[in-house]
Amino acid sequence: MKETQLKRTSLFDTHNKLDARMVEFGGWEMPVLYSGIAQEHNAVRQAAGLFDISHMGELLFDGPDALKFLNKILTNDLAKLEPGQGQYTLICQDNGGVIDDLYAYQLSDTRYLLIVNASRLEIDWMWIKAQRNSRHKSLQLEMSDRSGDLAAMALQGPKAAEIIAGVFPSAVELRKNQIAELEFGGATAWVSRTGYTGEDGFELVVPNESAAALWDQLMSLGQALGLLPAGLGARDTLRTEAAYSLYGHELTSDTTPIEAALGWAVALDKPDFTGREMLAAQKQDGVSRRCIAFKMTGKSAPPREQYKIFSADGTDREIGEVTSGTQSPSLGCGIGLGYVESAHAKSGTGIEIEIRNRRFPAQVVKRPIFQKSS
Amino acid sequence: MADIPTHLKYASSHEWVSVEGDTATVGISDHAQEELTELVFIELPDLGRELTAGDPCAVVESVKTASDIYAPLTGKIIDTNDALDTEPGTVNDDPYGDGWFFKIRLTKPEELDDLLSPDDYAEQVNI
Fold it and tell me: Does A187 share its domain with A45?
């Protein structure tokens, strides 16, 4: 068997000092937890959490035709952005299947930054280069994969703004989905008001050399406010409560954004882009299955990926499959995401989840699954 | 560092066993609960169920995963710790005390010799 060397982020020593439990994720050795998943989860909901997200990929595009090119390969309309703004978007194949979901930022008039999933970076980059070389050869732009040089972290939670003000005072002025080019330790730092937890928060991209210093500074600023380092375990429970998709679970090359309930990130009103024909047809004609969020309604074990979903309308039919499932630390019950036949996808619909050969009642719910009452 | 009480016997699948007469009390080791992380749900075997050593007979679920617990010895389930139904975290807090799982009336007490001594178990988990 081939031994694959796991990649380590520039915060690896920091995680070791914090006695993190490390796991493999997308080819990287990443912290899954420090103090405990539920504790880290609750810190993010009530105070703040700091995540290492250096495994994610950063792709830069610069040139007079950068917008034109990216708008051909991304589903959302990049032309709607102004410099300093970002949006959630997807890369699709011609048949509408999702290659990746990502954030696209406009940094300046001609410069764009894409932040992509770690597990998809290589495939994304190959796909983007192939699209450029086959269909858009005459366009004027430079493309570079900066992932190897850059570290990233996410500071998330209601106390995030108060904490970040100690390092980047101007960052608190950012509105949701905005990004600023700031300075940390003499180098450029990109700070955006975005995240994957359903809380207010920031994502910060800095050169590898600056990562540990920035991490330590944020941790010491946040300590008195309840900031905890948080791992992939809490990242997953938080995003599931927020009903955000995760590539490899809700999104694959066999699912389309319309099926995944991400039609809001598909701009059918912009000029032609890869996958448009199929996505427009699906939007008009409807889809046979749809991604749902659900909550267990009685006492049961937590739902898990690949558990079968059955109808609860008396027909007793298998109607789909769970794609993500966990025990919600905020709600104290099982929650999940999955695909069901479209007729069962409306919120409020009763469904059943099969757990170890027994069926347990659940209900399709609106997204997010958990929202703090303010 | 994980605690391994010296008065207990252990299965290589991380269950502990305490024997009194023909009855064995079974739980999971401190090492196991640490590895599993916070437990959020525990499914115990039905009373009266006949088990053969090695049978999967309970399921523990952390936030992240579901794991099987195996019967370390052959016999019949005569009691289960129903308090774990509402307080699964007791297993994390007190794995050798209030966090016990079930009691088996042994039909093959000679199988006790196949279990690991505390020293052998410590060696297995590299402590």
Answer: yes
Q: A272 in a domain, yes or no?
A: no
CATH classification at residue A138: 3.30.70.1400
Residue B127 is predicted with a pLDDT of: 62
Alpha-carbon span B124 to B114, nearest angstrom: 15
Q: Considering the domain boundaries, does residue A276 fall inside one?
A: no
DSSP codes, A64-101: TTHHHHHHHHBSS-GGG--TTEEEEEEEE-TTS-EEEE
Give the Cα separation of A126 and A45 in Å (integer): 37
Residue A20 pLDDT more than 50? yes
Predicted TM-score of the model (pTM): 0.95
- Is B1 part of the contact surface with chain A (CB cutoff 8 Å)? no
Residue ranges per structural domain of chain B: 10-107
Q: Is B64 on the interface with A (CB under 8 A)?
A: yes
Number of domains making up chain A? 3
Residue A330's pLDDT band, with cuts at 50, 70 and 90, is very high
In this structure, the answer to whether residues A155 and A51 fall within a common structural domain is: yes
CATH code for the domain of A197: 3.30.1360.120
Q: Is residue A283 part of a domain?
A: no
Could you report the per-residue pLDDT of A203-236, keeping only the tens digit for each? 999 999 999 999 999 999 999 999 999 999 999 9
Kindly identify which residue of chain B lies nearest to residue A32, measuring between CA atoms.
B64
pLDDT at position A1, please?
Answer: 44
pLDDT of B43 reads 96
- The ipTM is 0.87
Band of residue A372 on the pLDDT scale cut at 50, 70, 90:
confident
- CB of B66 within 8 Å of a chain A CB? The answer is yes
Concatenated DSSP letters of A327-362: E-TTTSSEEEEEEEEGGG-STT-EEEEEETTEEEEE
CB of B34 within 8 Å of a chain A CB? The answer is no
Preferred mutation among B46, B59, B62, B63 to probe A, highest tally of A CBs within 10 A: B63
Kindly tell me if the per-residue pLDDT of A138 is higher than 80.
Answer: yes
List C-alpha distances in Å: A265 to A76, A106, A186, A274.
Answer: 5, 16, 36, 14
- Structural domain range at position A296: 288-365
Which residues of chain A does B65 touch, with a Cβ-Cβ cutoff of 8 Å? 304
Considering only CB atoms, which chain A residues are within 8 Å of B66?
Answer: 301-302, 304
| Topology, domain B10-107 | OB fold (Dihydrolipoamide Acetyltransferase, E2P) (2.40.50)
Q: Which residues of A touch B64 (CB under 8 A)?
A: 32, 37, 233, 236, 326
pLDDT at A3: 55
Nearest to B37 among A33, A300, A302 (CB): A33
Closest chain A residue by Cα to residue B44: A301
Q: What is the CATH number of the domain that holds A337?
A: 2.40.30.110
